Amino acid sequence: MNTGRNAVSSKMEKTRILLRDPELARHVPETYPLTSVRLKQMLDRTGMVYVKPDTGSLGIGVMKVEKQGSLYRYQRGLVTRSFRTFEGMNRSIQRYTSLRPYLVQRGIHVLTRKGRPFDFRVMIQKNPSGKWEATGIAGRVAHPGKAVTNGSQGGTIYGLEELIKTKPGAERAKRSMEKLAWLTAVQFGRAYPAMKELGLDVAVDRNGIPWILEVNTRPDPCPFTKLADQSSIRKIVSFGKAYGRQYCLKCTKAKKPPAKGRDAPAKGR
């Protein structure tokens, strides 16, 4: 392993790093290289999974796959297709997954806002003293009609307190996500000592349990530019500058919350 690397592209490799820590492992959904057998086994057992490219970003290529009774369906972008047999659905999915490695991940029934799923981007960075420090949490509400929350897919960015309304609940969520981020940074720092920043995609399920859906080793801080409180993006940029990272902060696809608390339909990418 090249410990001088500061970025890791394979989601499966990053998952394996997380699983080395028993506490983190309890917050990682089952994730495997995609095969037809594995896909059917997980659908039969859990009813919902996500199929995603092993390498890639911005939510591109991610599919939500479900089994409901004897029917199967998958959603890719704004398009949902239904099938009477697993074999028929699998052949259709393979049109997208046959050209490069994909993963299958157990689906989490996440919290929603007005029927739209949301999760959080948690940023953690090396501060100027060389210590890991959580520098921001941004909520990401999915574009209407989409299963992914990415701002690059038209998601809307909210502050943590806007999505978890009670103060005690928001404080608990903040503490638990920051703890997961710190444990993750320690694990990645052991594997890759040159690592200086991570962005965790964390979902909270209906029981309040946080789940690490993905770890980004070259995280895009764009979501934080959409928050009313700009203190996080200022700190992110400042820490990044200290270790030589510059960010593009021209963020046109993620949405700010609509005025007067109303969720207006967002346009596509």
- Can you tell me the CATH superfamily of the largest domain? ATP-grasp fold, B domain
Continuous helix count: 8
On the 0 to 100 scale, the average pLDDT is 90
The overall number of domains is 2
The run of helices and strands is HHEHEEEEHEEEEEHHEEHH
Overall morphology: globular
Q: Could you give the count of β-strands?
A: 12
Report Rg.
Answer: 18 Å
In CATH, the topology of the largest domain is named D-amino Acid Aminotransferase, Chain A, domain 1
Strand content: 25-35%
Strand order of the largest sheet: 1-6-2-3-4-5
Task: Write up what this structure looks like.
- The protein folds into 2 domains: 11-27 and 110-258, 2-Layer Sandwich (D-amino Acid Aminotransferase, Chain A, domain 1), CATH 3.30.470.20; 31-106, no CATH class.
- The protein is globular.
- The longest helix has 25 residues, at 167-191.
- The strands form 2 sheets. Strands 1-6-2-3-4-5 form a 6-stranded antiparallel sheet, sandwiched between helices. Strands 7, 8, 9, 10, 11 and 12 form a 6-stranded antiparallel sheet that branches.
- It contains 8 helices and 12 strands.
- It has helices spanning 11-19, 22-25, 36-46, 86-97, 160-163, 167-191, 222-225, 231-242, and strands at residues 31-33, 48-53, 63-68, 71-76, 79-83, 102-106, 112-113, 116-126, 132-141, 156-159, 197-204, 210-216.
- A hairpin with a 5-residue loop joins strand 8 and strand 9.
- Residues 261-269 have low confidence and may be disordered.
- It starts with 10 loop residues before the first helix and ends in a 27-residue tail after the last helix.
- Helices cover 30% and strands 27% of the residues.
- It is α+β, with helices and mostly antiparallel strands and 269 residues long.
